[in-house]
Design a protein that fits this description.
about 250 residues; alpha/beta; Rossmann fold; seven-stranded mixed beta sheet; two-stranded antiparallel sheet; 7 helices; about 30% helix; about 25% strand; globular
Length: about 250
């Protein structure tokens, strides 16, 4: 109940300013956090192993950067979020409406590191075409979408969601199991998340986070790869108390 009340004050634009504009979204060096996240995803999808009909993004928030490398490997991408304001923000970008957040620097960077010489506008267009559904979700229900996903997703992606919407570690583990129900046996799960974080700010909202360690993310799945990033002092801007970021690739 307290989490729900806190998220009623969530400001998507403040969240985007805090995390997806400079200094955190600085593409001049791979040592910055946003290029690190994009490279983790690009290298993992470049293997060609993670592909299929449907990818579901659990707790998309107001962001699409996490889907840029994925969109080449799936016929359909399903974005989800608990908050209507985040689903509306995603919809504005998907429809190309004026005033939507400008993700073009992210798309250009992903095209650069993928190294195929693709015009970034082509990737933007492809993601918009394949982002076919933006659905409400509640990860604390055994059926997070309210009904089973049919057919189950071939891959699941979730970035900075489960630890930020769970009141404690036990709830985080349950939520991880619930979203795992959306994934087919043998399907791949990719998780990005915060390490050692206890709060973050999004406008007037100060939101609690379950502080995770590197051993936490893969419950219920076989861990294939785990990477971590230590947040440098220059990027500790006061909008959270995050120690670092993890990237986990697991398989159901």
């Amino acid at each position: 109940a307290a989490l729900r009340e806190g998220y009623e004050h969530f400001d998507p634009r403040a969240y985007l300013r805090n995390n997806y504009l400079p200094p955190r979204a600085d593409f001049s060096s791979e040592e910055f956090v946003v290029p690190w996240k994009l490279r983790c995803l690009a290298e993992t999808f470049a293997s060609g192993e993670i592909r299929g009909r449907t990818l579901i993004d659990v707790g998309s928030g107001p962001t699409i950067y996490q889907l840029l490398s994925a969109c080449d490997h799936f016929e359909e991408i399903v974005a989800t979020d608990y908050l209507a304001v985040n689903r509306e923000e995603l919809g504005r970008w998907a429809r190309g409406e004026p005033g939507a957040f400008d993700w073009s620097p992210f798309i250009q960077h992903v095209c650069k590191i993928e190294g195929r010489g693709e015009p970034w506008q082509d990737k933007e267009r492809r993601l918009r075409q394949r982002l076919r559904r933006i659905l409400p979700i509640d990860v604390h229900r055994p059926e997070p979408l309210g009904a089973p996903l049919r057919p189950p997703a071939d891959a699941l992606l979730s970035a900075f969601c489960l630890e930020a919407v769970s009141p404690d570690r036990a709830a985080f583990v349950r939520a991880l199991a619930h979203v795992g129900n959306l994934l087919r046996p043998g399907g791949h799960a990719l998780l990005l998340g915060a390490l050692g974080e206890s709060f973050y700010l999004a406008g007037p909202a100060r939101l609690p986070v379950v502080p995770l360690q590197e051993s936490d993310p893969a419950a219920g799945c076989a861990l294939r790869e785990l990477r971590s990033y230590a947040m440098p002092p220059a990027l500790r801007t006061g909008v959270d108390d995050v120690d670092g970021v993890f990237f986990a690739h697991a398989q159901k």
